[in-house]
Amino acid sequence: MPSKSCAIIGCDTKYNDKTTLRHRFPKDQAIFDIWVKRSGNNKLLNKPLDLVYKSSVICDKHFEQNCRSPGFKKLVHNSVPTLNLPGMTEEIASTKNSSIIQIADEL
Questions:
Q1: Are 35 and 8 in contact (CB under 8 A)?
Q2: Of 23, 1, 10, which Cα lies nearest the Cα of 80?
Q3: Is 79 helix (H, G, I), strand (E, B) or coil?
Q4: Which of 13, 84, 96, 97 is most buried by a 10 A CB count?
Q5: Would you say 40 and 85 are in contact if contact means Cβ atoms under 8 Å apart?
Q6: What is the pTM of this model?
């Protein structure tokens, strides 16, 4: 069971927050790597994907509205965190890096 605390460094979503949604790290390696990098959490850098998937989450505070699947509590496929990230202003995060990554079919 994953932790209820957000993996983003500096995030205030902790175990006792019962209202904020949490999202497991993706199983797609390319998107997973982006989530880990943007988390600013060095403890996740050398952990394998399956271990991070099982133990860590990122809360809803780090995803734009267009990342949320309408009517569901899950994220749109290939969504990446862009809001409230350590060392990155929201303007830079949302303009230089899309909140939903398009993966080329050739990959």
A1: no
A2: 23
A3: strand
A4: 13
A5: yes
A6: 0.81
